[in-house]
Give the backbone structure.
Amino acid sequence: MKFIKKNLLNIILIAVLAAIIFIPGLRLKIRDSFFPIAEIENAVKISDADFDLDLKGINVPNTNLKTLRNNKLIFLNFWGTWCPPCREEWPTIQKLYESQNTKVDFVLVAMQDEEQDVREFLKKNNYTVPVYIAESPLSDKILPKIFPTTFLLDKTGRILLKEDGSKDWNSKSVHEFINAFVKESIK
């Protein structure tokens, strides 16, 4: 009993660390609660040339990324049907799309995928988020190094957020972040 009283703080700390390490998803929830923005790169802008990306629409008409510039925020996500973390975050992207599509242009680019596989994935899961396949080379500034990679860009092409890896895109912190930038851009 003396041992427990003497080391109670250490026991609690070890229990909390063990919970963070061994309970799936807890680490992500803690990160999103205390550090809602993975990476803000205010100094990095996507240039006009970087925006010149021809996109073949899978469930929407074909477009070029530059036609979306200066309209709204852009949620630009690079993913693949073959990628487990990409498939894991899709339901949260769909929910974010359903609630924020009037404020944000969603551009999900399927990479290293066959068009038919992408169509089947969307149909099977009833996803309606705009999905494309890139038909021109990607700029080094947006070329993903891991999948998924997501950018949130403002109207000028400034990178507000870059997330390498999966994320709960329907979290309160993401909605607050988007709403804050939408309010700022209205001013």
Remarks:
- Confidence is low (pLDDT under 50) at residues 36-43.
- Residues 1-35 form one domain.
- The two ends are 62 Å apart (CA to CA).
- The CA atoms of residues 20 and 31 lie 11 Å apart.
